């Protein structure tokens, strides 16, 4: 498997990065994990919009899904259309939410271009076995584990610390973990995001092999957040940057 960072800015697009989006590739199949604000442009540096194998949405906040609107336009109005529908896996209500975002009627909404599926605990998506677990966030949100052969990537999406994440990430080769809050900040809201120390602690408890820190908002420094995660995780800790590629 190959993991490519399309966007790693937390909560909003940043000056050097779109919001959350990651490309997982194997056996000629490309799975997009989230398609946040600004990510469609970065995606097209790697493949054409209609070449996406499937899309996996961790949750329906705009910084994780809103570029589906641009994708809908690209698929619908391309001179080469129509294309086969692209499967989109996400929380319940994703089809209706995205139709509303583009001011479309619920029927057909985006369903002529995108084929929406509600997350199950486990499903086969192309060559990948994809497992999910509900996370702790103000809206329905899921961590996503992508397995191929004996390798795996686990993506936290957005979440506060919780046992389900530890169990889903158990033994994973790479944990792509958000770290949107600062350590030791008494004003941090609960059940919303991870601090770097949280990310490192969850990774340590899960026994992951590598930790990649992502989803750092533009008002914080992503290198500092990564350094702070090293306080609680004894293994390799890396910083997600736009265009970074990880071989699994």
UniProtKB/TrEMBL annotation:
Region (Disordered): 182-203
GO molecular function: 3'-tRNA processing endoribonuclease activity
Domain (Metallo-beta-lactamase) ranges: 18-215
Highest taxon in the source lineage: Bacteria
Record-linked PANTHER family: METALLO-HYDROLASE YHFI-RELATED (PTHR46018:SF4), ZINC PHOSPHODIESTERASE ELAC PROTEIN 1 (PTHR46018)
Name of this chain's protein: Ribonuclease BN (tRNA processing enzyme)
Species classification: Bacteria, Bacillati, Actinomycetota, Actinomycetes, Propionibacteriales
């Amino acid at each position: 498997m190959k993991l490519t960072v399309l966007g790693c800015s937390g909560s909003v697009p940043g000056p050097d990065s779109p919001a959350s989006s990651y490309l997982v590739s194997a056996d000629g199949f490309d799975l997009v994990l989230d398609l946040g604000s600004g990510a469609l442009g970065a995606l097209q540096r790697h493949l054409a919009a209609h070449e996406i194998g499937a899309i996996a949405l961790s949750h329906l906040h705009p910084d994780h899904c809103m570029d589906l609107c641009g994708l809908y336009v690209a698929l619908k109005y391309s001179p080469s259309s129509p294309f086969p529908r692209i499967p989109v896996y996400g929380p319940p209500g994703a089809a209706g939410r995205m139709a509303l975002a583009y001011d479309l009627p619920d029927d057909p909404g985006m369903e002529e271009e995108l084929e929406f599926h509600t997350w199950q605990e486990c499903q086969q998506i192309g060559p990948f076995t994809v497992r999910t677990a509900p996370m702790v966030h103000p809206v329905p949100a899921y961590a996503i584990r992508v397995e191929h052969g004996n390798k795996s990537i686990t993506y936290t999406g957005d979440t506060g610390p919780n046992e389900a994440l530890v169990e889903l990430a158990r033994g994973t080769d790479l944990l792509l973990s958000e770290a949107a809050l600062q350590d030791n900040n008494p004003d941090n809201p609960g059940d919303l995001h991870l601090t770097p120390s949280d990310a490192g602690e969850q990774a340590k408890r899960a026994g992951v092999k590598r930790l990649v820190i992502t989803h750092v908002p533009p008002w914080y420094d992503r290198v500092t957040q990564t350094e702070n995660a090293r306080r609680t995780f004894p293994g390799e800790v890396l910083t997600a940057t736009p265009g970074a590629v990880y071989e699994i």
